[in-house]
Specification:
The complex is a heterodimer. By secondary structure, chain A is α/β, with parallel strands linked by helices. Chain A has 11 helices and 15 strands. Classes of the chains: A alpha/beta, B alpha/beta.
């Protein structure tokens, strides 16, 4: 049984901050099939297209029939823990400073043997459920947990190392004027965040929802205009060392594409707000977060971007907006690589049109801001990297995987 | 249906000149240095010239980027038969098998079988990181416990399945330490009691400190030739009676409780024309005591699940009723990388030649040496064994 983790005390500024280290990173190319699965929170194994055999670790040929047709498919998660061990003196720095570390060997019901990190409540010879998670190197690892719920399950030390649970962490939500930002702040606070800082540009100007935010314990309104470099740097100087999770809810949506606009002023605004705002936030807060990736229970853990699913495929009706989102998506991959030495995750949420004023003319289904907020919390709790929110986003994901060209033609109508 | 035919017997194939270059815990020297010294010692002991060696078989984890071919130029060898064997703990048996058939077919007359490894301060960690693709993808990222953690999983399951206690495994380690105290080259020089064994710190449960070998630098070697060659050189030699090797046996077992020996054991004894009881010295591959116990079962000294009983009922020391790993084995002498595969075979060779000195088992004529290794993923994939007899048998 897991003891609940205790809220961390105030940090002693005289003590050295423990620097992040990373678990072993090398993987075969084929093995990144698991990385994709882990990023989306799916449990996928290679399954032979010729004979149906599931196999693991990642292979180039089926061990039963030597077919090379080994597709990664969603697989049954259940298995039995056959044996376990606790490594007490590992040779690798990351594990050595986290020892004792528990791992086990699981026989999956669907066939393969998997070596996995163990939740503390896993019991030998009993059933476990398997998932792939992303570790501090950003690589997929198998994780086994008991089949049922156990008390304080999410407080497991090894599980917390693989996730970015808001519990006891301090969060900055960058734009509290949007409904998504407000809902996110509430949801993160409800998920156990110690403090949620909510950025508001020109906070002396009133805005809808302000009183609910101001009256909420543990939510603090801070002055932040992401598009303004000085504003970002001022806030980073103030709270940069205590932002454990940053949720970038910057929102700048305008309808329209290319030919029916005159000049570049609207596009310049889209780029200023969304893309350069992201740049300012990354430069202001990224370095300190990367430095604090192993700083105790409330270490820096994740950076979340709320993006449009049309970052993945241009929707001409909102064509210039789609392009600004694509720019942000590309930049997020750069940020992910640069935050990796700190073990800080970069989570991208891809949403369909949100149910707000800017998508007023768009027919349903639309995504409720509250659904975006709960997807943020769920992604952090489960350590995901790519999250598709709502039916439209999920449909775009599937159509993109099936035939990107068909999607391109069909979005143009 | 492919029909299986009987293997050709080894006809007058012998092994000679057992060489051990004494191990050191850490050495600044390279693998090439250790291998070179071993070949030099082979030549000296056999009273031959370097140019008389016309076959070479090498094993090393740390000689990269060289393979055997680079070593020929490095050591001034001009051979007409060459092999590099990267099979970890099965390397010695595999080398012997390759070399035996080469000299039997006259592809070579004198094959030098050599294994040597460096041990710099960071060598061991680098070897663990780069062991195999499955290990890199699916084992090392899970706590980086290396072989200790992999064998811990096997040991725990084996102990639970067959009711084996730590004392049972401890007796193997304690007996080998007693043997090692007679071996001046063993790295472990102080006695080990059962109390000390049981009180040792855990490394990766249930593996504790004295279940583990100490990585070190060193080299081992021997010569393989036909008996007419040995006679012409006046070299004392041991006759090779039979061998087996096997990879990825019993893949359907969910966890490893037996090694490949169990598949081939009948052939091993039938080809040699001996029974397990006839053996005077048994040299198992002892990376961990649990693997030794598994070999007692799989090599036919007792049935599966009776390994612990077998250990309880026998005295495994030099003077005992079942002399086993008489130089102290890797557990007490040290594990010099791939040379660890050779340690048991080379000592067994000294035993049947009667040249083992302080570790000599009285009247040892017939010996078995085995190899095991390569935890590629969840189990050791390679196994092998050889039976050989001294000149007096």
């Amino acid at each position: 049984m897991i003891e609940p983790i205790k809220p961390p005390g105030r940090k002693n500024p005289l003590l050295r901050t423990r620097l992040p280290t990373a678990p072993p990173r090398p993987r075969s190319r084929k093995s990144h099939g698991f990385t994709r699965a882990a990023a989306e929170g799916r449990f996928m194994l290679q399954c032979c297209e010729a004979c149906g055999t599931f196999c693991y670790p990642a292979r180039e040929a089926c061990p039963s029939c030597l077919s090379s047709g080994l597709a990664f498919v969603d697989a049954p998660r259940r298995g039995t823990l056959l044996s376990e061990t606790t490594a007490r003196v590992p040779s690798d720095v990351y594990f050595r400073e986290r020892a004792p570390w528990r791992a086990g060997l699981i026989k999956m019901d669907c066939g393969p043997i998997i070596i996995a990190h163990l939740h503390a409540d896993c019991v030998e010879t009993a059933a476990v459920l398997m998932s792939f998670q992303l570790d501090k190197s950003g690589q997929a690892v198998a994780f086994a947990r008991p089949e049922g719920e156990t008390p304080n399950m999410a407080d497991d030390r090894q599980w917390r190392e693989l996730t970015a649970d808001p519990k006891f962490r301090r969060v900055l939500v960058t734009n509290g004027r949007s409904v998504v930002g407000q809902e996110a702040a509430m949801a993160l606070k409800a998920a156990g965040a110690k403090t949620v800082f909510v950025g508001i540009a020109e906070p002396w100007r009133p805005f809808p929802g302000e009183s609910a935010l101001r009256g909420h314990e543990g939510i603090e309104i801070v002055a932040l205009d992401a598009a303004d470099e000085k504003s970002v740097n001022d806030l980073a100087a103030d709270i940069g060392g205590k932002v454990d999770i940053l949720v970038n809810t910057t929102e700048y949506v305008r309808a329209g594409g290319l030919l029916d606009r005159r000049g570049t002023s609207v596009m310049r605004d889209e780029i200023d707000q969304a893309y350069l705002g992201f740049v300012n936030l990354a430069q202001g807060f990224g370095p300190a977060m990367r430095m604090r990736g192993a700083d105790g229970v409330n270490n820096a853990a994740a950076w979340v971007n709320v993006l449009s699913v049309y970052a993945l495929a241009n929707w001409p009706a909102f064509g210039a907006y789609s392009a600004s989102q694509a720019a942000c998506l590309s930049l997020s991959h750069c940020l992910r690589a640069e935050l990796r030495p700190g073990g800080v995750k970069v989570v991208n949420l891809f949403t369909g049109p949100v149910d707000n004023e800017w998508f007023q003319t768009v027919p349903p289904p639309k995504v409720a801001p509250r659904a975006v907020a709960s997807a943020i919390v769920s992604a952090l709790k489960n350590g995901l990297e790519d999250v598709y929110v709502g039916d439209v986003a999920e449909e775009i994901r599937q159509r993109l995987a099936a035939n990107p060209k068909a999607l391109e033609r069909e979005l143009d109508r | 249906m492919v029909t299986k035919t009987l293997r050709a017997p080894y006809d007058g194939i012998v092994m000679a000149a057992p060489v051990t270059i004494p191990y050191v815990r850490y050495s600044v020297e390279s693998a090439q240095w250790w291998i070179g010294q071993a070949i030099r010692e082979l030549v000296t002991q056999a009273g031959i010239k370097v140019s008389d060696i016309d076959g070479l078989c090498v094993s090393s984890f740390t000689m990269g980027p060289d393979s055997g071919v680079g070593l020929t130029q490095h050591f001034g060898l001009c051979v007409r038969w060459l092999d590099t064997i990267p099979l970890g703990g099965a390397s010695a048996i595999a080398a012997l098998r390759r070399a035996a058939r080469a000299v039997q077919a006259h592809d070579a007359d004198i094959v030098a079988c050599v294994a040597g490894d460096a041990n710099h301060v960071d060598s061991f960690r680098l070897t663990l990181e780069n062991f195999s693709r499955f290990n890199q993808d699916a084992v090392y990222p899970y706590g980086a416990g290396g072989a200790n953690s992999s064998f811990a999983l096997i040991a725990r399951n084996y102990m639970r399945t067959y009711g084996v206690t730590r004392e049972d495994l401890g007796k193997i380690a304690v007996s080998q330490r007693a043997n090692a105290l007679r071996n001046p080259h063993a790295l472990m020089k102080s006695p080990l009691t059962m109390e000390q064994y049981l009180a040792a710190r855990p490394i990766s449960d249930p593996i504790h400190l004295f279940d583990c070998v100490m990585p070190c630098a060193g080299a081992e070697a021997f010569l393989v030739m036909r008996d007419d060659t040995a006679k012409s050189l006046g070299l004392p030699a041991a006759k090779l009676l039979s061998t087996i090797e096997r990879y990825n046996a019993f893949a359907e077992d969910p966890m490893q409780v037996r090694g490949g020996w169990a598949m081939d054991i009948d052939e091993l004894y039938a080809m040699a024309g001996v029974k397990p009881d006839d053996l005077d010295v048994v040299q198992t591959y002892d990376d961990y005591p649990v693997i030794v116990m598994m070999q007692f079962e799989d090599l036919g000294f007792c049935r599966k699940g009776e390994g612990a009983d077998f250990v309880r009922q026998h005295d495994l020391t030099i003077g005992g009723d079942f002399p086993h790993n008489v130089s102290g084995g890797q557990l007490s002498v040290g594990q010099a990388g791939a040379a660890g595969a050779y340690l048991g075979l080379v000592e067994g060779l000294r035993q049947v030649l009667g040249t083992a000195g302080p570790t000599q088992v009285k009247d040892a004529k017939l010996a078995l040496a085995s190899g095991f290794g390569m935890i590629n993923y969840d189990r050791g994939l390679a196994s092998g064994a050889a039976i050989f007899a001294g000149p007096s048998r």
